Amino acid sequence: MRSLASMGADEARGFKYVLTDVDDTITSDGKLLDCTYHALWALHDAGLKIIPITGGPAGKCDLYCRQWPVDAAIGENGATVFFMENGRVRRIDHPTAVPNTDVRLKAILEQCLKAVPQCRLASDQYTRLFDMAINYAEDEPRLGVDQARTITEICLANGAHAMPSSIHVNVWLGDYDKRSMATMVLKSLFGWDPSMMDEVVYLGDAPNDEPMFEFFTHTIGVASIRKYEASLTHKPVYIADKAGGEGFAQAAMRILELRSAL
To answer: How far apart are CA 117 and CA 119, in angstroms?
Structure first.
């Protein structure tokens, strides 16, 4: 991972799409900072299309489309996408997404609660449509990476997909992830194809961003990615000096600075 200072102007000028994780990438300790919201608007005003791609719930993605300067919002690690069309919010679900009422997910949760007694369903589970989010670090008591790994292993052993974010282990049954839904959305809504790889930059902070770090050419991690560095096979190309929303703002301002350079 290289410092943001080594990013070149030609690289930044090629960007048309800013894809980004939300929790602990745009937010800091669950809050949207003033500098980060300003950075989102600065990217928007520069003509860049912004697409949050989060393990967070469908309900939050509806809000992002209504209140943030974004062009679409992908939720639940790729299960669904929200976007504005003719003044209304529209939603498209991944064709393989399985509702989170499936009894297999309930059985997996029971095993996780037995193995890691202090884990629990995320408080925003009621706003989710397809995934089950097992909270290990969003609220007290905050558990560690080892407990998140145990939860993930149980889910995978039971035939589910599971990816730890910085706060939850997201568990689902459909055949998708952040990358597959992101490429589907870029193609269907914006006419993008893989020959346009240099037009996309992705920002993230956690293991569930790894499919994006692997696939996209231009990637940035906020500083908090370092605590997962040893376990990542695919790392971001660049890393910000700051964590969370301050790291996102730092990256956004660096991109805009390079784009305006003579």
So the answer is: 6
Domains of the chain: which residue ranges? 2-96+176-260, 103-172
Residue 261's pLDDT band, with cuts at 50, 70 and 90, is confident
- Over 90: is that where the pLDDT of 207 sits? no
Beta bridge partners of 80: 75, 93
pLDDT above 80 (res 262): no
Residue 24: closest CA among 56, 51, 1, 50: 56
The pLDDT tens digits of the residues spanning 93-144 come to 999 999 999 999 999 999 999 999 999 999 999 999 999 999 999 888 999 9
Separation between Cα atoms, residue 167 and residue 253, nearest integer Å: 26
* Cis ω before 117 (30° cut-off from 0): no
* CATH code that applies to domain 2-96+176-260: 3.40.50.1000
Decide: 170 and 163 in contact? Cβ < 8 Å.
Answer: yes
3-class secondary structure, 15: coil
The CATH number of the domain covering residues in 103-172: 3.90.1070.10
Report how far Cα 23 is from the mean position of its chain's Cα atoms: 7
Backbone angles phi, psi at 132, to 5 degrees: -115, 125
Distance from chain centroid for Cα 128? 15
3-state helix, strand, coil in the chain (%, to 5): 45, 20, 35
Instruction: Kindly report the number of other CB atoms within 10 A of residue 172's CB atom.
Output: 29
- Is the pLDDT confidence value at 195 over 60? yes
Give every CB contact of residue 247 below 8 A, 6+ residues apart in sequence: 25, 205, 222, 223, 224, 240, 241
Nearest of 234, 200, 233, 191 to residue 218 by alpha carbon: 200
